[in-house]
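Posting for a labmate who doesn't have an account.
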Amino acid sequence: MKGLIPAFFSVLFVVGCTGNSNNGIEYYQFNTSTTVSNSLAPDNTVLLKPIKIIGLSDQQAIAQIHSNHSVSIANFNYWSEHPKHMLYKSAQHLLSQALNKWQVIDARAGALQFPYFEVEIHVSDFAGHEKHGGIISGNWYIFYYRNDQKRLLKTQHFVASQPLQADGYPALVNALENSWIQVNMELKAELEKVRAAL
């Protein structure tokens, strides 16, 4: 009988260790296509620098901002990769699709032919918000390179928010993605304006 008790607990231990446990952790990402459609005969080039995330949202856990000046960090709901990488891939895709006769170049590219534009995006808020849904805010900068000289053409603070269509993290992720699309479409319009003004 004494030998049966340790054997019984050994079997329970092995079954517990090899069983399929559901730890409740969920991972999310934007619905960015992997195909990038740059123009075959581009008139303009923009170098997209890596996204910089400042503060609370510079982590993989999804953040929630409350109206009483407090924040919550999700314990079981994460981005599938660091949000700066996800936002970068998404911006590259969105701008490549939206800018006609432009090529959007990855920041890891080698030497570029002058002249070209450069875009930096700094994100200060990328979170859920009790009153505003999915909110993204920060600053973007458009530079112009010509003859080895870099010139700042335009900088702008942006705030984009989308209400949640339902409760839960999937709705929050959808609202944040729509906010990010809004930011990139505004940036696209500004790139076209500064190009026309040169």
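Reply:
Got it, the structure tokens are right above this. Helices lie at 4-18, 83-98, 169-197.
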